[in-house]
Amino acid sequence: MDRTEAIRLQGIHGSPYTRKMLAVLRFRRLPYRFIVNWPQNVDAPGNPDDRGDLPKPRVPLLPTVYLRNDAGVPEAVTDTTPIIRRLENQFPSRSVVPGDPVLSFLNYVLEDYADEWLTRCMFHYRWHFEPDIEKAGRILPLYIRTDFSPETLDTQAAEFARRQIERLPVVGSSATTAPVIEASYMRILQLLESHLQNHPFLFGRRPASADFAMMGQLTCLTHFDPTPTRLCESHAPRVYAWVERLEDLSGYEIKDADWLNAAEGLPDSLLAILSEVARTHMPQLIANGRAVAAGNAVFRTEIDGKTWEQPSFPYQLKCLRWIHEEFRSLPIAHQDSARSILKATGLAPLVEEAGT
Ligand SMILES: N[C@@H](CCC(=O)N[C@@H](CS)C(=O)NCC(=O)O)C(=O)O
Fold first, then answer.
1. What is the Cβ-side half-sphere exposure of residue 310, based on CA atoms within 13 angstroms?
2. Terminus-to-terminus CA distance in the chain, angstroms?
3. What is the pLDDT of residue 320?
4. Residue that terminates a domain, selected from 90, 125, 142
5. What's the pLDDT tens digit per position in 254-266?
6. Ligand 1 center from residue 115 Cα (angstroms)
7. Which CATH number fits the domain that encloses residue 35?
8. Which of 20, 25, 61, 127 has most ligand 1 atoms within 8 Å of its beta carbon, as the pocket-test mutant?
9. How confident is the model at residue 353 (pLDDT cuts 50, 70, 90)?
10. C-beta 216 within 6 A of ligand 1
11. Are residues 164 and 277 in the same domain?
12. Residue whose CA is at the smallest distance from ligand 1 atom 7
């Protein structure tokens, strides 16, 4: 692709993955066009006719990014993690993947934690407590269009909230798991708060894709939904500011030396964040992987000494396999260094699980 051609990205303001992707594009200084309505919907204001030819994604997820394949034909692609790697290969400058292989692997793990665990905190807080349901139900439909009558907006809000609340158990939010999710949100706020006291970003003085993944979910948790926003304001002021700063780092200048130096040892505050992944995301990722592989519709495990039960989720087995692949793609000496960090933080089983 010609660098000057703008990347078309379809998404919506209330979507954490859309916010992650937009923030990456801004930091990377890649030109883009943000499209809110489906491109095929040529009657929508602001959608020119020529967008009608854009292909549809295989699974309709937000954001959908339209990238040219090797033959120059636009493809509709979803899933921000591989999209970010594809853009890394095309445009090397202002990379969001640390050059050091060990840091690059740890960044991948933290990105997965944000995309797949923190998103549960996001979905839970958005649709669990009344004030959050009320706000999200009323505002999210308006991001698509504002010209609803008050009566239509009431109906839309109720319908939207009903649909999303119905999906809560699918992402693992239930009466059983609520205490685990809420305690984990408080811990990650505190862990990020102490890391940010000494480091501008997770991996040093420049942002990595995991920063943007965390930021995407946190745009909802710390700046939209009232209950988790209040918790952040009172317990983690640095996190509150960090999320907004990450939104647009187009003017933030970086150097190669701004990444942490893995050979000097990682800061305790980063190791503590990795230990948090071992405490919450890892047990469910492994239990889910076993359940999907065995064909079980539901899985149950223990997280933080409490029961965790939810429908099993084939996509998350793919996530676990991708983590394995990332690990195996490291040169052997780097696998050894990564393994000692994984051991020290309780994450060793993440790359050891056989049979998945
Ligand atoms: N792993 C995907 C997840 C994308 C995703 O789940 N997007 C949500 C919105 S934030 C979605 O489109 N959900 C289906 C829907 O809203 O109908 C990524 O990183 O992009």
1. 28
2. 36
3. 97
4. 90
5. 999 999 999 999 9
6. 10
7. 3.40.30.10
8. 61
9. low
10. no
11. yes
12. 62
Distance 17 CA to ligand 1 centre (A): 7
Is the same domain home to 209 and 146? yes
The reply to whether 67 and 123 lie within a common domain is: no
Q: What is the pLDDT of residue 237?
A: 98
Closest ligand 1 atom number to CA of residue 315:
1
- Verify that 105 and 86 share a domain, yes or no: no
> 2 in a domain, yes or no?
no
> Could you read off the pLDDT of 10-33 as tens digits, one per residue?
999 999 999 999 999 999 999 999
Ligand 1 near 17 CB (within 6 A): yes
Judge whether residue 49 has pLDDT over 80: no
Residue 167 lies in a domain: yes
With cut-offs at 50, 70 and 90, classify the pLDDT of residue 352: confident
Q: Which of 25, 47, 29, 50 is nearest to 37 (CA)?
A: 47
Share of the chain above pLDDT 90, in %: 89
Of 20, 58, 59, 62, best ligand 1 pocket probe by most atoms within 8 Å of the beta carbon: 62
> Ligand 1: distance of its center to the CA of 304 in Å?
27
